[in-house]
Specification:
It is an enzyme of class 2 (transferase). This protein is of the alpha/beta class. The chain contains nine helices and ten strands.
């Protein structure tokens, strides 16, 4: 698909991304292309200090990583697990995990520490956010409850959600969904999902693959399309770029451009539609 920025010219401003739970677990993030092309800057949070140091070794001007525990602003135990990426402010639910291949061993607690969390709204390095990504192993709702100011101007949220209680007393998909809808977002799509096989079965002798049971996924939420008319022109362009380049949501990107044209008197949506159809880029 074509690069949407080729039809936007100088009107596009830098996109602001906040990444909570930014540990490098291999592979590119969904928004990596925006960073690689200089279209965005990122403030990331990774509370495990050695992992945060690895991220900061990238030394890129448009990347900043901070070792904060983002949550509800209170002190909590932090459960460090055998696999660092599954460490959480919630205790792993080992009796449930034991039903599945290679989860109980993976998420077994090896150390616990008391940590001070910070509300996202109170962190000065976080300003106006366009894309908010949250992956904190069960504590996502705590992040959102401490981010009402940030969420007010955020355009897109990508968050990990759980469908079964992998962590004790941790909120599930329905809880996160309800809160984000209260904050003016609508569910848009799932960006990948994962599961494990129930013991003793194993799919193709691969312990990390599942059959039918979904355990977690990344859920993408977009500011309600019924409120696009309330967004500033700059935010509408940023939204169109995110939808087009990151999530391949070409129809919703076109809707954002329609509202942009209504505000500015431009004709960007028609140019965009022509490009989607493989036609001329000139305005009709």
């Amino acid at each position: 698909m074509f690069d949407i920025t080729s039809i936007l010219g100088d009107a596009l401003s830098e996109i602001s991304i906040v990444d909570i739970g930014a540990m490098d677990v291999g592979g590119d993030t969904s928004f990596q292309s925006l960073l690689d092309r200089g279209l965005a800057h990122l403030v990331g949070f990774e509370p495990i200090e050695e992992e945060c140091e690895k991220l900061n070794q990238q030394s890129a001007d448009h990347l900043t990583y901070l070792p904060n525990f983002v949550g509800d602003g209170k002190v909590h135990p932090f459960y460090i697990t055998q696999a660092a990426m599954s460490s959480s402010l919630y205790e792993p639910n080992l009796p449930l995990l034991g039903h599945f291949q290679h989860l109980e061993e993976y998420m077994r607690v090896v150390q616990t520490a008391q940590v001070q969390t910070r509300r996202l709204d109170e962190i000065s390095e976080v300003g106006d956010v366009d894309l908010l990504k949250v992956d904190v192993d069960g504590a996502e709702l705590d992040v959102f409850r401490g981010a009402s100011r940030v969420l007010k101007d955020t355009l897109v949220v990508q968050t990990e959600v759980h469908f079964v209680p992998l962590y004790k007393q941790a909120p599930l998909f329905a809880d996160v969904d309800s809160h984000l809808r209260e904050q003016g977002f609508l569910f848009h799509q799932f960006e990948g999902h994962a599961g494990r096989a129930f013991k003793p079965l194993m799919l193709s002798n691969q312990p990390y693959r599942g059959f039918g049971q979904w355990l977690w996924a990344d859920a993408v939420y977009v500011k309600s399309f019924e409120s696009f008319g309330e967004l500033a022109a700059e935010k509408l362009l940023n939204l169109a770029v995110i939808l087009h380049e990151v999530y391949r949501s070409y129809d919703m990107a076109a809707l954002a451009l329609q509202h942009y044209d209504a505000l500015t008197g431009c004709n960007i949506q028609q140019i965009y539609l022509n490009r989607l159809a493989g036609g001329d880029t000139a305005a009709a």
